[in-house]
Task: structure prediction
Amino acid sequence: MDRYAVIGNPIKQSMSPVIHRAFARETNQNLEYDKLFAEVDGFKPVVDAFFAAGAKGLNVTAPFKLDAFAYADSLTERARTAGAVNTLALQDDGRLLGDNTDGPGLVSDIRDRLGWRIEGQRVLVLGAGGATRGTLLPLLNECPALLHIANRTASKAVQLAEDFAAYGDLSASGLDKIPQAFDLVINASAAGLSGERPQIDPSVMGTGSCAYDMVYGAEPTAFLRWAEPLSASTADGLGMLVGQAAEAFYLWRGVRPSVEPVLSMLREALR
Ligand code: ATR
Result:
C-alpha cells in the first residue's frame, strides 16, 4: 500500500492523518497515512528512512518547512517563492519534488468554498512572516486590483513587497499607515496564536468587506471577533487547513477530494 505521513515537532495534535484518511476513503484511494516525529535537528535521518522504506509522499509542518525546502531535489515555483515546503512528492524518476500548498489552500478556501472574490478586489494581508510569504504568489495569480501588506514591523512588509515585485504590483506599510479601505482582509499574522489581533483602524474594512483569519480554534479568533460587526462575512483558517491538504492529496494522487465533509467533521471535533 502507498505510504504517506506528516512530520512535525510536536506532531500529536496534527489533524492531517484524519483529513487524508477521509480523502482516501471518499476517493477510493488505497493508502496509509501516519504521523512522524523528529527531534528539531533530526529531520534528515527520519525522512531518509521514510523514503528508503518506499514511501510516496510527506507533509511537513512546524518547525521543518525550511528543512524540507533544503531537502527537496526540485521545487515548484510556489514553493520557491514561499521559501518553504509543506509537501514532498516522490516523482517517477525517483526525485523528490518540494511543493507548498498553504497558499493554494488559502486561495481555494476563499474563492471556491466561501465564494468570495479575489480577482479585481482590493486585498490586504496583515503580517509579514512565513505565512504571508507563502500566500503572496497564489494571491497575485488571482489578479487582485491591489495587494497591500501591512505589518507591525513596517520594514518587514516593505522587504516582502520588494521580494515579490517581479510577480505583481504590491504595496506595504506599518499597521498604523494602511492607506485605504479594502474588500478582503486576510490576517496572516501570528497575533491570534496568543489571543491578540493586529491593531488596525476599523476604517480599513470597506463596505461589504470579507475578513479571513488564517488561525482557527474552537472559538472565533480575536481578529474575527473584532471584524464581525465591520464585515459582510468572516471565516477562520480551518478551511485553509483542509484546502492545503486537498492540494497535497491532488499532487500525490491526481484526484481532487471534497473538502466540505471533512471540514464539517473537523469543526465538530473542535467543539
Ligand atoms: P509565521 O510563520 O506564522 O508567519 P513568523 O514568520 O514568526 O510566523 O511571523 C509572525 C508574524 O506575525 C510577523 O509578521 C509578526 O509581526 P512582526 O514582524 O512585527 O514581529 C506578526 N505578529 C505576531 N504577533 C503579533 C501581534 N500581537 N500583533 C501584530 N502582529 C503580530
Remarks:
- The pocket of 2'-monophosphoadenosine-5'-diphosphate is lined by residues 127-131, 151-153, 156, 189-191, 196, 198 (CB under 6 Å).
- Residues 59 and 107 are 19 Å apart (CA to CA).
- The radius of gyration is 18 Å.
